[in-house]
Amino acid sequence: MHNPYQTPLADLDTARAEEIDTPPEVGGFWIRVGAQILDVIFLSPVIGLTFWLSSMSRYFYAIWLIPGTMLGMFLTVYLVRRYGGSPGKLVLKLRVQMQDGAPVSTKAAWLRVAPVLALSLATNIGSAYAAMNLDQATYFSFGFMQRAAAIAALSPGWASLAQTLMQVWMLAGAVAMLCNKRRPRPA
Asked: Which pTM does this prediction carry?
């Protein structure tokens, strides 16, 4: 199956592929993994803040639904459309582009991440529901890992299904990257 929205390797300081009549170079699996790791490092202050705030109130999961979704859309739609990738991709000189080398359209940027955003939102709604159904004393008696396990156990079945589908989707994306015939071959 061909994915026209896959991340190619492109030097952001040079002309686009159609301007120099060569096909765009496709980024390999490990450089993409590196970009993901850099994104997590760049987001670590936000991740730490959410861990800390979730320990302060059982309502945090509900309060974080809108800002968390907006942050996800900013990173995966706006930055890809505006700059060609997330901060990790840009640091490693990767650029998301259309198959012909053109910048990603807004529609393509949305379609690229819509399944993960929708499944993530469903999972987060289920977590918010479960956290609010825990009584205050029980919520605060748990450590972080125990609290996460209790929230997962109390989440509605549809939220657990959404989380499983999101993990399957992401695993399928990794397998597709590994099996991509256009990826660079090791020398």
From this structure: 0.76
CA distances from 150 to 106, 119, 126, 160 (A): 39, 20, 12, 13
Q: Cα(93)–Cα(128) distance, rounded to whole angstroms?
A: 37
- Rounded distance between C-alpha atoms, residue 12 and residue 94, angstroms: 8
> In sequence order, which residues have a C-beta less than 8 Å from that of residue 86 and are 6 or more positions away?
35, 39, 75, 76, 79, 80
pLDDT digits (tens, 9 = 90+) for 34-57: 999 999 999 999 999 999 999 999
User: How far is 111 from 6, CA to CA, in rounded Å?
Assistant: 12
What residue has token string 């256009």? Answer: 182
Q: Tell me, what's the pLDDT at 9?
A: 55
The contacts of residue 160 (CB under 8 Å, 6+ apart) are: 126, 152
- Locus of tokens 């968390």: 68
Report how far Cα 62 is from the mean position of its chain's Cα atoms: 20
Pairing outcome for strands 25-26 and 8-9: antiparallel
Residue 97 DSSP class: B
The DSSP call for residue 23 is P
Tokens read off for 141:
């008696």
Beta bridge partners of 97: 103
